[in-house]
Amino acid sequence: MSTILDSAATSARIAHRSVLGDIKAVWTRETLTILRDPFSLVFSLIQPLVFLGLFAPLLAGVADDGLGFGSTLQFFLPGVVVMITMFGTSMTGANLQFEIMTGAFERILATPLARQALLIGRALKELTPLVVQALIITLVAVPFGFDLHPAHIVVGLLILGVFGVGVGALSYALAIATRKNEWAFWAVQQSLLFPLLILSGMMLPLETGPDWMQALSKVNPLTYIVDAERVLFAGTFDDSAVVYGIVAAMVTCAAGLWVGVRTVTKSIL
User: Fold this and answer.
1) CB atoms within 10 A of CB 211
2) Residue 152 near residue 72, CB atoms below 8 Å
């Protein structure tokens, strides 16, 4: 009996290492495309910097007076970081659709790579430049009055990483479901992305909004991510918002991977 249990435990460890190795292989392959075209990473910094430069002054006084985050940047910058993550991970399915059309993804499916590794590795590839962008934007904001709390920011980025893997997996599932109608992917993605961002209080506080908006924000997982990021970027750990953010990130990640793996496994490309 002990021999059987030892054998099962050994097989489980090998399978675990195999999945991690597959994730690393997929992430490395996908990340090399970024290194070959670093201009796209630099260019993608423009939009969040524009949001930061134009929206933050409009919020002057709102965050200072009513929300307890100190400076306007302390309130607004975490929302911009979340926005970067959402834009990047929710559009990852578009890259997959291109690979489906060229037949590259079909060849990848013929390999012995674990299906969850395909999703996690690709999502992590999208998160890698997003983390770099978030760090650059945060450092840019420091001379303008943003209080830097490195340890808290690292925790915040880890939460965003878990959440982003789930969103990326859902984006891939949507790309496969709409592979015969490319326009449908963008229609669904855009129709969901902006309401989720607005109803999370990312750009403007919802406390003064109508009751129906506040009610919808309570069922929006992105709301809890934004709240957690604001608390962490403000330099606080001891807050229920961080716990709720971690739970929202883990639930989104688990649901996204379940839907994504199921879609990849059952779809006939």
Assistant:
1) 7
2) no
